[in-house]
Prior knowledge:
By secondary structure, this protein is mainly beta. It is 10% helix and 35% strand. The chain has three helices and 19 strands. It has helices at residues 2-22, 89-98, 279-286; strands spanning 51-52, 173-174, 177-186, 189-201, 204-213, 219-228, 231-241, 244-252, 257-260, 266-269, 275-276, 296-299, 304-307, 310-318, 323-333, 336-343, 349-356, 361-371, 374-378. Strands 3, 4, 5, 6, 7, 8, 9, 10, 14, 15, 16, 17, 18 and 19 form a 14-stranded antiparallel beta sheet that branches. Strands 11-12-13 form a three-stranded mixed beta sheet, covered by helices on one side. Strand 3 (177-186) and strand 4 form a beta hairpin. The N and C termini lie far apart (44 Å). 35% of the residues are buried.
Amino acid sequence: MTRFRLLLIALVLSLLLHLMLLGSDLLPALSLQPEETPKLEKIDIKMQAMQLDTPAPLKPSHAGVQLRPAAAKAPPKPAEKPAPERRKKTQASQAAEETAEASAPAQETLVAQASSEPVAELPPAEHPARHQAASEPASQPAASEPASQPARAAQSDASPTAGFIHPDTAMRKFPVAARIRYQGFWGQAMVGFGDLEWLQGDGRYQLDISVNPFIGPKLRYLSQGQIDSHGLRPDTLQAFRGGQLKDSARFDYDAGLLRYGDSAGKQLALKNGAQDAFSLAFQLALKGGDLGRAPIQITTAKKVYEYPMAPAGAFDYDTGDGKMRVIVFRAEGDGDVTEFWLAPDFANLPVRILRADKDKRIELKAIRIEVNGKRQWELPPQPTIRNKNAH
């Protein structure tokens, strides 16, 4: 019995040690075969710059309320999936011209609940607006409105092209709020889920990205700054690991310095148009992908890079529930690759994000998109892979 107990204790200690190592930076990168790079096509759709969907001014009693991401809510039971229909790929980009104006602004349906993670506070006057509905959370559709299903143009089943997903209504304005749920991949292995929360109002924005791996600590990135018709002007980026602040970046425009690293202890000259690694995707989306050909100063809070961000091509992104026509933006430098797959039909939002270097390949692939409190698309659970899409 004593020997059995010793073996059991050794097994438990070994398991704990492996879990600790997997959650740290001590293990070498996994030697997984990278996914085959898709063959991009010539860009045949125009990505439009977006007009900001500006919320109505706050009443005086609401002044100074801090904007924070909404807490995740359990999704409603999925409605029965309609029979797939087909249409030509060019209609994916033209749907916005054939439908009515976008739905009413989200401030009447949006709820932003405070996050449980630590957040460095900004002065109240600098925070963007937060709008609350009387009862319905942002992640749920209104009681009188069923969960939105992806609309597809009706075409004959004999059509040679697959069905393309597009929203119910045209998205001509950049949203007040957006939430995207992703599956997270390390190489070809699914390792967890990611969530993106976007909120903007009163000339401010907040972008909150969290990655929840099955094993290891939670990662969180919080970007905050200013926004207007010229785009995003980030003020801070904070990187958390397991709830603890690890690195941060501060864009000191008065001093002309970009401060970054542990406790923002490093500094470089701040260049015009600088972005953090996450605000960059939304700057591309808002400006219709037109950021010029000059290198952009980009920080991950831990490091700083400079490279141009230009469209590499178009692609029919197969979501597993129909396709989305996307524009792929790719930046390469110092052995690193960053890609944002932006969907013009969905307000140019990033439906796929890739970060790769010589040691690793990390991808986020969208499985749910909500815009201004309304669910626009969700990948149904995949019956062939247990729990792969348990969102």
